[in-house]
Amino acid sequence: MSNFLLQLQLLLxxxxxxxxxxxxxLRARAGEILDVAGKALSLxxxxxxxxxxLAQKLAAIRAEIEAMAAARHTVTADELDAAMTRVxxxxxxxxxxxxxxxxxxx
Amino acid sequence: MKHPLRALALTxxxxxxxxxxxxxxxxxxxxxxxxxxxxxxxAVIESYGALVETATIIMRDPSAPIxxxxxxxxxxxxxxxxxxxxxxxxxxxLRARAAYEGASPSxxxxxxxxxxxxxxxxxxxxxxxxRAQAPxxxxxxxxxxxxxxxx
Lengths: 106, 151
Hints:
The structure holds 2 protein chains of 2 kinds. Chain A is built from 3 helices and no strands.
C-alpha cells in the first residue's frame, strides 16, 4: 500500500512540474486541484496505515486469547500489569498528541 | 475554486483508494475468543491498548480535522477511566482467587468466606467488563467513522 501511495504522490509531483506549461487561466485551478489531491492522499495514507496496524494488533491479541482459551489458562497478575502498562503508556502518548494538535490549531 | 464538487469528488476518490485497500470487513474481535471472565477482561484491556495506539496515529496526523481529534479525545477521556476501573476489579478478583486457592479445605469457615469473596469478586469483574465495553466500543466506532469519512 505504501508503494502505491508513493507512486500516486510521485505522479502528482510529476503533474505539478507540468503546471508552468498550462495557460495562466488554467494554472491556478490545476494547482488547487493538485493541492487538494495531495492533502487527500496524505490523510488517506495515514488512516490506512493506522487501520492496517490496528487490524494486525487485534488479530495478534485474538490469537493470544484463543491460545489462552485452548490451554484453559487463567490470567496472572503479571499479565494484567503488562496489559495496563500498555494502556497507560498509550493513553499518555495519546493525550500528549492531542495537546500538541490543539496547540497547533490556530 | 470554480468547481468545488469536482474537487470534493477527487478528494474522496484519492482518500478512498488507500483506505479501502486497508479495510478489513471482519475486524478481528479478541473479546469473543475468550472463554472465561478473566480472559474476557484481559482481551478488553489489551484491545483497548491497541485502539489508543491507533487513535494516537490519528492525533499525530496533521491532515486529520481537529474536530475529529477532539471527539476522539473526549471518548478516550471516558474510556480510559472505565478500563482503569476494570483493572481494579480484576486485581480484586485475582486476590480473591488466590485466597480461595490458598484456603484450607479442612477449615469450613475459611473456605466459605473465600468462596463468597470469590463469587462477589467474579460478579464485580463481570459488571466492570460490561461497563468498560461501551466506552471502548464508542472510541472504536469513532476511529472507524474517521476511517469511513476518509473513504
